[in-house]
Design goal:
The complex is a heterodimer of chains A (151) and B (134).
Chain A: H1 16-34, H2 43-62, H3 71-99, H4 103-126, H5 134-140
Chain B: H1 2-31, H2 36-60, H3 64-95, H4 99-128
Helix pairs in contact in B: 1-2, 2-3, 3-4
Classes of the chains: A mainly alpha (151), B mainly alpha (134).
Chain lengths: 151, 134
């Protein structure tokens, strides 16, 4: 699990536009690489995925003039990371509760954490629908996928 | 060669913009250090600056000490922010809690308040090492 993300090599870029493209391609790849953890119960791995989404979102939001078509993707990433942030807060409270034998609270908060992750999954998947918020991002970073029965 | 120079200038400008925003947010926080909202704004600005450094510093070449200082401020602000958010969440749970849960929640909240006080002290110390803010 990589919480920090990779350092991009942008020296090969021949312009700021191509540097932005390389950077977003890397940051999007990091999200795609880790997305499977959403269906796990591994709070640390889910938190690492959240940080990867934040790195991608910050990179998109840094250049609003150059990337107007990608701002809906940034908005969707913001919604995903908000849900996962709530899940993370609950997971930490659950850990603290467990450490001091506050079992009633521990169970309650753990259950809320799962609920927030489920909501994040719904938001994340919405981005991959045909015409979803990630479609322009995929086009910009030259990723392609086909989903059977995608609507 | 010309392209590399252009990229370097472009990367430095992007980092400089994020640095100015982070300094402004930190100054606002220092003027009202009990404000959870201002702390949140400062932490968000630090997170964006940190991300810009990670993304562009290979090109821009800012000194490693600068990046380390930003990392530390972000981490310290994060500890206070996490405690703020968790205390707020516990307060919400308390609204509908039964007797047993209330006892547990109050115990957790007290522990978090203590943790937050310590985290605030450490953040204040870290901020003193950034004269540009004061």
């Amino acid at each position: 699990m990589n919480k920090r993300g990779r350092t991009p090599d942008l020296f090969a870029a021949d312009s700021p536009q191509s540097a932005i493209r390389s950077l977003l391609r890397l940051r999007f790849a990091e999200c795609l690489e880790q997305q499977h953890v959403l269906s796990s119960q591994d709070d640390d791995a889910i938190h690492a995925f959240r940080l990867a989404c934040k790195r991608l979102r910050y990179a998109i939001e840094r250049w609003p003039q150059e990337l107007p078509q990608l701002q809906p993707a940034a908005q969707l990433l913001s919604e995903v990371t908000d849900e996962l942030g709530n899940a993370h807060d609950c997971a930490i409270i659950a850990d603290r509760a467990q450490a001091c034998n506050a079992n009633v609270v521990g169970r309650m908060v753990q259950s809320d954490s799962r609920r927030y992750v489920a909501r994040a999954i719904v938001r994340w998947r919405a981005g991959f629908r045909a015409q979803g918020a990630f479609a322009p991002l995929a086009a910009f970073t030259a990723y392609q996928w086909s989903l059977n029965g995608a609507r | 060669m010309i392209e590399t120079h252009t990229l370097e200038v472009w990367a430095r400008e992007a980092i400089s913009q994020e640095t100015q925003k982070a300094l402004a947010a930190l100054r606002a926080y220092c003027a009202k250090p009990r404000s959870a909202k201002r702390l949140h704004q400062a932490r968000k600005a630090l997170a964006r600056l940190r991300a810009a450094l990670q993304d562009l510093n290979e090109l821009a070449g800012s000194p490693p000490a600068f990046r380390e200082r930003i990392d530390e401020l972000h981490r310290r602000a994060g500890k206070v922010r996490d405690a703020d958010v968790q205390i707020q969440r516990i307060d919400v749970y308390l609204e509908d809690a039964d007797r047993e849960a209330t006892l547990e929640l109050c115990m957790l909240r007290d522990a978090l308040r203590e943790r937050r006080a310590g985290a605030r002290r450490k953040l204040r110390r870290a901020l003193r090492s950034v004269p540009e803010i004061l």
